[in-house]
Design brief:
Mean pLDDT of chain A: 96
Oligomer: homohexamer
Number of helices of chain A: 10
Low-confidence stretches of chain A: none
CATH architecture of chain A: 3-Layer(aba) Sandwich
CATH class of chain A: Alpha Beta
Shape of chain A: globular
Number of strands of chain A: 10
Number of domains of chain A: 1
Structural class of chain A: alpha/beta
CATH superfamily of chain A: Ureohydrolase domain
Largest interface: A-B, 35 and 34 residues
Helix content of chain A: 25-40%
Strand order of the largest sheet of chain A: 4-1-5-10-9-6-7-8
C-alpha cells in the first residue's frame, strides 16, 4: 500500500485545496477566485480576509466525497486564480471591478467558485454571470433576503444585492429561491416586494418545520434545466456553526443540513458558478466558520464532479 | 421605496435595541434594566459585564418578529433604564439593592426585562415581583435547578435562588416549571426537595425525548392565567450555543428550541417580567452567547406585543 | 439540609474531577492517566496540553449521573495517576513509553481512563490492553477511520493507529465498530482495506439517517461479552461542539448523541478501558471541547458504576 | 473619610468616562464625539467599533491627573455627544457627514474630543476645524505620515488625509509637526512632498535617539500661540502597546512617552480639538489598546484643565 | 554529559514549578499556597483562576538564577500546599478564612509565597503575618495605593487592604514603601492620608525619572533588618507586560525593572513572606502576565536562596 | 503624483512581502523558504504554522528602509520558494530533509531567508550552510543558548541545535556570539561547555546594562570578513513583543533594540543566510509576534541591499 501523502497538508503557499495557482483559468474546469471586499458591510467588517481564511481552512480538504461517490481530482481540473483587486471605501467602482474581473472567468468555460467578501459582491457576480449566461436561476442560502433597496440614502451594500439583481433582470425570479431567511425584520412588509416579483422565500421556520426533502424538490423543480447560480451566505448556518460572520443569526441550520442540500441540489442542476460570502475570520477563533465555508465550496465541486460522472456514464 | 435606515446600527451610545435611555420607566410598556452582579458565582465570574454585552449584541435586532407576526415598536414603548448598582463581595446587601431597585419598575406598570448578572439576582427579582404581584408562576429554563439550600456554609449564591424563593413563598410551586435540567448532580436526591414542594422539573433528557410540544402544553396548563415570571438561564442552551457562561453544560438545546418555546409560552400567558442571566462575555469570543441572550429578550418582547395585538383584535 | 460543599470547585491542585492524586493505581477501580503526546499530529499540534485542559474542565463535574441513575463516588474509587512521560519528536520511542506505562495500569485491575494526546497514542493503549486482555473489541467514535498505513514515508502518526492495531492483531475486527466516519477522503478506496478485514464502519451519513438506536444495538451485538475498549476521538462531535481539535469536521454529532451512545453501549459491555483523544486547548477559547471530552470520560465512569450496580443487584 | 464611590465603575450605560450623555454640546467645555467610520482602511478594518471600545475602556479613568496636578471634573464640564452617522462604503459622502457633524461642535465653544474610526476621518475633522478656526497647527503623533495623494486610483483613504489637508490649506505646514514616523516606506522619496511643503517630520529613529525633551520644545516653538489640533494615531505606540490597530508598527513608543509628550505639549498650547484614531477592538483581546487611547484623551482633557488652572491663577 | 531532563515540562499534575504537593508545610523552607479569591474586585473579576494560571506558567521555570548566582533547589526545600478555600460573595468570612489558613504557614517556619486572587487578600496575608511576626515593613509594588477606606458603603475590597492594614497596625508605615503608583486618581488628596501616616509613596513618574537605583537604596534603608513582607500587584507592570489583570494601567514598568528591583531588595532583607496578586487569566491570551507573575515569585525564591548562601558563606 | 498602489495589500495569494512565488531560486538574490517543522519543541508546539503567519504579516511591509536608506526592490530580486516538506514526529529524518532542501538554495547563489519552525531546524540550516561555505560565524539572538546535549535521552530538539553545530564543526565558536541569553537555567554550569569551546555569550543582563553599541562592535570584530549566519529566535524579544512563541521569556528586548542591532551588524558583514524561528501563531492573537519576525527578515534584506549599495558606490 502506497503512502498517501508526501507533503504534510500544513506545508506550502496557501491556495484553495492546495490546487495550483494560475493567474488565468486556461484549461481549467473550475476556477477559484477571491473577492476580498467588505465595504458593503453594515455591521462588523473584515470579510476582506475571507478568501485567505477559506484557503487556509481548505488545505485539509481531500478530493473524494463519499456521499456523492465523486472524486474532484478525477473528474475536474481545479485552479486557484488568486484575488480580484477592489477599492476599499469605493462601493460602485469596486462592483465594476468585480464584474470586469469575473466576466473572463465565466467566458473561459471554467465554472467560477467565488470566495467573498461580503454579500454586496454578489451583485458583481450576477452582473458577470448575466453577461455570459443571461438571467440565471438563483439558489440562495441565507438568513437574510438582502432585497432592501438601499441603506442610509445609498443604493449598494450587503443588504441590497438581490434588490438590484431583480431590478436589473440578472436573475429570473420565478425560477429562483431563497432558503433559510429568519431573524427580526425592519417591518411586516420587508419581504413583500421580492415576493411580489415572483421570488420564492423559504423562511427558516418553514425549513425547520417541514425538513429538507420538500424544499430540495421544490428548488429542483423551480430551476429545471436553466443555468443556475448558487449564492451561499455563511449565516444560513446557525450562529454556533458560523460564529465568524458579520451579522450572525440564531435559529439557523447545521452544516449537515447545509451540505446535504447543496449536494442534493447542485449535483442535479446546470450550475454556472457560485459564491460563498460573509466569512469573517476575526470572529472565528477556531476556524470552524471558514472550514464550513470551504466545505460548501468542496460540496459544490463534488457536485460538479458527480454531475460530470453521471453524464459520462449515460 | 424609502431607505430603511438613516443611522448604521453600530453607531451611538449602547442601549438595548437602541431604545431611548430613560432613568425611570415613566410611560413605558417595557423597561429594560441591567443588574451587573456576579458575586454569587460558584465557578467562572464575569457576568457583571453581561448587561453591557447584551446591549451591544442587541443593536442588530430589528422590531418585527415574523414568527409571531408582531412588531415590538408598533405595539410597545420600550425604554432602557440603565443598571442597578450593587456591591461586589457583599451578597446580602446586593440582594437588597436589587429588590429595592426593581420594586419601582414592577409598580410602574411597565414590564421589567432584567439583564443579569448571575442567577443569584433572581432572588432579588422575585422578591420585587412578589412585593407587587404576590406569588408568581415561575417559567424557568435552565440546565440547573438552583434549589440547593446553601454553599460553603452560606445561604446565597447562584445555585440557591429558587430554594429561597420557595422557602419565602415568592413562587407558587404547583404552577411553576423548570425546563432543561441536566448534567451531573451532587447526589441522587439533589432534586427531591423541590419536587416535594410541588415544582415540576422537566429534565433535559425528557425534553430531548418527548420534544417541545407536550412540554409547552403542560407549562401553559400549569400556569393558567396567573401572573407569571420568566427566568431564563442562558445555559439552558447547549454549550455550543452558549459557550459564554460560567458553568456551560453539554447535551443542551438549540436557540431554535429555546426561542420557539419562549414565544409559544409567553405569548399565551400573563407575564409580569423576565430575567435573562449568566451571560459571561469573557468566554464568548464571537458574541454568539450574548446574541442568543438578547434574542430571548427580543422573543419575550415580541410575545408581549403579540399578546397585546390579540387583545386589541378581540 | 446540609451544605453540599465546603470547597469551591475552582480551588485546589487540578486532578481529574478533583479525585485524589496517587502515583500508582493501588486500590482503585478507575485510574485516570494523561498521555500528553502530540508528535503524531498531521495538522494542528497542541494536544499535549489535552490532559491539563481535561482536568481543568472536569472540576465542575459532580458524581451522580441522573440518566443512568448511577453515582460514581458511591460505586467506584477513582484516582488520578498523573501523566506518562513521552518524548516529543520521537514517535516510536514514545509509543513504547506509552505501552510500558499503561501495562501496569491494565494489570492492576483498575480500569484505565486515558486522556490524550493525539490519536497515535491509541496504538500504545491497545498494545497495553492486548498485553493483558488479548484482542479487544474496539468501540471507536471518530470522524476519521485512522486506518491509513503511513504518511510521508513513515508508519506511525495519528492517521494510522488502527491500521497497525489490525495488523498486529490487537483488536478483533469482526467485533469492532467505527462510528461517525465522514468528511472528504483521499480516494474512493480509502476504507476498503479495513472493511476487508471485517471492521464495521458506520459512516456519519448513515448515523444521521438511521438514528442512534439501530447502531447502538448493532455495536452491542457485535461485541457481546468480549473485553471491549472505547476509543473516543473528540472530532466525532461536530466542529461546533469540538472546535478545539486538530482536524475538526463538519456534519458531525451533538454531545447529546455522543453521550447517549456512550452510556447506552458502555453500561452494557465489559469495558477494559478507554481513551479520549484529540482535545486541543489552543483552539478551544471557551473550553467547551475540553468540557465535552471530560463529559465523555464521566459518562464512561458512570457506565462502569451503573454496570457494577446492575451486578450487585442481580 | 467618605466612601468615594456609590456606583461601581462597571455599571451603567457606557459613555466616555461615565460623563453625561447630551445630544448637543450646550454648556460644555469638552464635547466627546465618536466617528465610527472605517471605510478608509487599507488593511484590517473594524475601527468603526473604536468609539464603543474607547468608551468601555474609559469607565475606569478617574478625574484627577497627578502629573499635571489637574482635576478634569473641577475645571471642565465634559459631555458625551454620541456618534456621528456615516455611510459604510461611501467615502466622500461620509467625509461630508463628518465635517457637517463636527462644525456645530467647534462652533459651540466646547473643545471636541473626536474618537475614530480610521485616520481618514481627520480630513473631516480638519475641514470642520478650519471652517471655524482657519488653518490650524497640527500636532500629529503617528507611525505613518499619511501624506500620500491616493490609493488604487482614488483620492481618499486613511493614508491620504494630510495630503489633502495640506492641499486644501486646512493646516499650516510651517507650524505643524509629525512625530514618530517609521517603518518601511513605498520609496525613498515618499516623504519628500510633505517636507517640501514645510512640514516637520520627526522620524521614530530620531525620537528614540534624541529623547522627548528637544522634540517637545521644538513643537511648542513651532506652534506658538496659534490654534492647534492634536491628531493621535494609536500606532504611534509600539505594537506591544497598541496591538489593536489596523497596521501596527514595531520600533514604536511606550505609553509613558506618549502621555508625557501629550501632557507637556497640550497643557502649553491653545488646543482647538483632538482626534484619537485607529483603535481596532477585534485585535485587542485584553483591551490595552483602547485603554491607551482613552488615556490619551484623558491626558488631553487634563491638559485643558491644567491650562485653565494656569489662566485662573495668573 | 548527562541528559538534563527525563520528564517534559508539560507533563504532570500542575504544582508550582513542578514542586511536590504537600498539604502541610512540614519540613519546607518555602510554602507556596494559592488564595483563589476575587470577590474584592471592583472592575473585571476572575483572579480566582490566578493560582491555577501561575502554576501552569511556572512549569517552565528552572531552579538556577544567573543574576543572583543562586540555585533554588540547592538551597531550599519548596513545596506546594494547594489552595485556601474561600467563599465567593462573602468578603468578611473569606478574609477570616485566609488569615486562619495562613497563620499555620507563617508559624511553620516556612516562608509563604501566596498566589492571589485579588489584592483584598493581602489584608488576610498581613493579619496572619502580624499574628506571627508583629508589624512588618511593607515593600509594595503596585499601580494603585489601595489605601481607600471603603467602596460603595462597605469597608473591604481590593482598593482598601492597606488602609485597614495601617488602621489595624499590621504594617509599620515609617518602614514601608509603595512603588510605582500612577494613573488617574479620584481626587487631589486621595493619597494624603497614607502619606500622613508615614508611608513613603514612590509615584510611577518619580521612578521613571530617577531610575531604579535610588529607590532600591531608599527601600533597603527604610526597612533595615526588620521583618518585611513583599506585596506585588501585577499591575505595577505596564499594561503591555500585564494585560491580564483587572485594572491594567499604562505608563508602567517592564519585567526587567520589576525583577531587578525584587532581586536587589529581597536578597538583602529579612523577608517573612510575599503575595503576588491580580493575575487575571481571562485577559491574558498568551499567558505572559501569568509568566511575569510566576517570575516574580521565582525571583523572590532565588533571593531567599541567595540570602541563605550569603549567610552560609559568611 | 502617481498612485502608489494598484492592489490592496490584503489581496492575493500569500507570499513573503507579496514577492513572486518560484519553486527554485533561479535568478534570485534572496530566496525565502519556509520550514514548517515543530517536532523539536519541548513546550508549546505550533511553529509549523510560523511560515504561513510570517507571510501573512509580511504583506504590509514595503520595500524601502529609511534607517539604512536602502530599497530592497531596487537592489535585490527576492523570490518566495515555498516550504520544505518535513515529517512530523520523525526528528532525524526531518533534519535530513531540511539540510537536503536547503543545500541547493545555498549553492544557487541566492541568500536564503529561512522561516521556521522551531529552533531545531537550525541544525539543518547550519549543516546546509556548512556544506557550501564551511564553518560559519554565528550571530545568534535568543533568550536561550540551546547548547544542551540532549533531552529525555535523545539528542535532537530545539534546545540542542548549537551543541551539535559546535560538535560537528558547523560554526566557528571563536567568531560566534550569542546575544540576549537570560531566564532561569537548569544549573549553575549550564553554559560552561559552550563557553569552554570559545563561544561568546552575552547575557541579557549584560546587554541591558551596557547597551547596544559595545555589543555591536564586539560582534563585528569577532566575525570580521568571514561568512556569517544570522539565527534569530523570536524570544530574544521580550514576552511583550513576542507573546507568540513556545517558551516566552520576560526581561527581554524591544523590537527597536532588535532591529537596530540586526541592521547595524548585518549591513556590515558577509551574511550567507539567516533563519527566523519560534514564531507560534496560536499564542499571537494580534499578530504582533509574526510582524516582529517578518520585520527581522525585512531588516536583514534591507541590510543586504545596503551592503550591495555600499559595494556599488565604492
Amino acid at each position: 500500500m502506497a503512502f498517501v501523502n508526501s507533503s504534510p497538508r500544513f506545508c506550502g503557499i496557501r491556495t484553495f485545496m492546495r490546487m495550483p495557482f494560475q493567474s488565468t483559468p486556461e484549461g481549467a474546469d473550475v476556477a477559484v477566485v477571491g473577492v476580498p471586499f467588505d465595504s458593503g458591510t453594515s455591521y462588523r467588517p473584515g470579510t476582506r480576509f475571507g478568501p485567505a481564511a477559506l484557503r487556509e481552512a481548505s488545505t485539509i480538504l481531500k478530493p473524494y466525497c463519499s456521499v456523492l461517490d465523486a472524486d474532484i481530482n478525477e473528474m475536474l481540473k481545479v485552479v486557484d486564480c488568486g484575488d480580484i483587486d477592489t477599492i476599499p471605501g469605493y462601493m460602485e467602482e469596486s462592483l465594476d471591478a468585480i464584474r470586469d474581473g469575473l466576466i473572463p472567468l465565466f467566458h473561459s468555460g471554467a465554472t467560477p467558485v467565488i470566495l467573498g467578501g461580503d454579500h454586496s459582491i454578489s451583485l458583481g457576480s450576477l452582473r458577470a454571470a448575466h453577461a455570459v449566461h443571461g438571467p440565471v436561476a438563483l439558489v440562495h442560502f441565507d438568513a437574510h433576503s438582502d432585497t432592501i433597496s438601499g441603506y442610509y440614502g445609498k443604493p449598494y451594500n450587503h443588504g441590497t444585492p438581490f434588490y438590484w439583481a431583480l431590478k436589473e433582470g440578472l436573475i429570473s425570479p420565478e425560477h429562483s429561491t431563497q432558503i433559510g431567511i429568519r431573524g427580526p425584520l425592519y417591518s411586516r412588509d420587508a419581504l413583500s416586494w421580492p415576493k411580489s416579483q415572483g421570488l420564492r422565500i423559504v423562511m427558516g421556520e418553514e425549513l425547520h418545520r417541514r425538513g429538507m426533502e420538500p424544499i430540495i424538490a421544490e428548488v429542483l423543480k423551480r430551476v429545471g434545466d436553466r443555468p443556475a447560480f448558487l449564492s451561499f451566505d455563511i449565516d444560513f448556518l446557525d450562529a454556533t456553526a458560523a460564529p465568524g460572520t458579520g451579522t450572525p443569526e440564531v435559529e439557523g441550520f447545521t452544516t449537515y443540513e447545509a451540505l446535504t442540500m447543496v449536494r442534493a441540489i447542485c449535483s442535479q442542476l446546470n450550475m454556472t458558478g457560485m459564491d460563498l460570502v460573509e466569512v469573517l475570520p476575526d470572529k472565528d477563533p477556531s476556524g470552524i466558520t471558514a472550514l464550513a465555508g470551504a466545505s460548501v465550496a468542496h460540496a459544490f465541486m463534488a457536485s460538479l464532479a458527480s454531475r460530470k460522472m453521471q453524464h459520462h456514464t449515460r
